[in-house]
Amino acid sequence: MEGSNQFGWVEKLVGGGVLIPPNTASANLIGRAIAAAVGLGAQRPALLDAVGISEATIRNQLSWVPGVVLNRLLLAIETQLNKPAAVLEIGRDSKPRCFSDIGYATRLLPTLYDVIEANVQMQELRQNIYRTSLAEHGEFTILKWNALGNDPQDIAAAVEFSMVTYVRLAREIWGERLIISGVSMQHRPRFDVALYEQYIGAPIVFGTKETMVEFLTEQCRAPSPFANPTLLAAATKCHWQPVQWFDAGLQLSAFTYFYLWTELNKSPVTLDRVARSFGMAERTLRRNLVEQGNPFRSMLDDIRKSMCDLYKLENKRSLAEVAELLGYGELSAFTRAYRRWYGEPPSKGWQAVARKAA
């Protein structure tokens, strides 16, 4: 870990070549939008067909697609669900729920300002269609959107999705106590303004020179009730591991690490699936990982152990949920792995954590 910037590893990744090209979106962002839409009743295969992307693309969290795919997806979601404000609804519902989403750990930062700033920093790994920026202006802290030369109306759905995710992020911390002092959007409303105000929770002015949300600086700088420096430090250590491999020239190991980390809770992770996602033969990927000193099965086991450590520290999930999040199809398989990692059954370890927390 370098310095006090817990998310400085994002900059290191960008410097290491994980750079989102202009007008593109990451599979991570696309996948989150699809998952939220499916939660509202959309059909996943139909959405993938509508935008012309594959499951293999979505599984590789460090892959990217043309920016038009994101806008096309959001519009397809609205059409399939027959809801004009579906983009706002999925923005509200697409929050990270576990450590497999690399943005989940931002919630552990000391203040709302830190949380938003970390997510602004992380956008370099998510999309390059627009840019957000955060700055204090006296009693107000302003989050702005830069369309990067795009017509604001053309990317309206994507910006609306982004705005609602940031507002939802702020409400995760402050709930109904959150105060939004102003909202403006450059583009024209795409549907009834009342629906925008319902999801964002504040009056909105459209057709302005800038797109922005104003928060109260006092609230942004107040200690967050979800701050957890111990858990944040443990998660940060995990995120820096693949960056060190980038520095050592072991890019394939780093990419595989991130693939496994982000995919554990979504589908069975196999060497074949990783290889196909990278456009490689399974045998080639296996050989390269062994040559780099990071055999696939060993890496997978290490990642599961590291993530299990985080869930133990977090201390709020059942054993069955953790087993599922780590990619174990059966609780018995997780129990065997847990005994091997910690030298005791998981029920005993979880009880010890619970007593400590109490």
In short:
The chain is of the alpha+beta class and 358 residues long. The protein has 18 helices and 7 strands. It has 2 domains: 8-221, H-NOX domain; 248-357, Arc Repressor Mutant, subunit A, CATH 1.10.10.
Description:
With about 350 residues, this protein is of the alpha+beta class. The protein has 2 domains: about 210 residues, H-NOX domain, CATH 3.90.1520; about 110 residues, Arc Repressor Mutant, subunit A (Orthogonal Bundle). Helices cover about 55% and strands about 10% of the residues. The strands form 2 sheets. It has a 5-stranded mixed beta sheet. The longest helix has 19 residues. The chain is globular.
How is this fold's topology laid out?
Blueprint: H1 8-15, E1 24-26, H2 27-39, H3 44-51, H4 55-59, E2 64-66, H5 67-81, H6 86-93, H7 112-122, E3 131-137, E4 140-146, H8 156-174, E5 180-185, H9 193-200, E6 204-206, E7 211-216, H10 217-221, H11 229-247, H12 251-263, H13 271-278, H14 282-291, H15 296-314, H16 319-325, H17 331-342, H18 346-357
Helix pairs in contact: 2-5, 3-5, 5-8, 6-8, 11-12, 11-15, 12-15, 13-14, 16-17
| Rg for CA atoms | 21 Å
Mean pLDDT: 88
Number of DSSP helical runs? 18
> How many domains, in number, for the residues?
2
Low-confidence stretches: none
Dominant shape: globular
CATH architecture of the largest domain: Alpha-Beta Complex
Strand composition percent = 5-15%
Give the tags.
two-stranded antiparallel sheet; five-stranded mixed beta sheet; 56% helix; globular; 2 domains; H-NOX domain; Arc Repressor Mutant, subunit A; alpha+beta; 358 residues
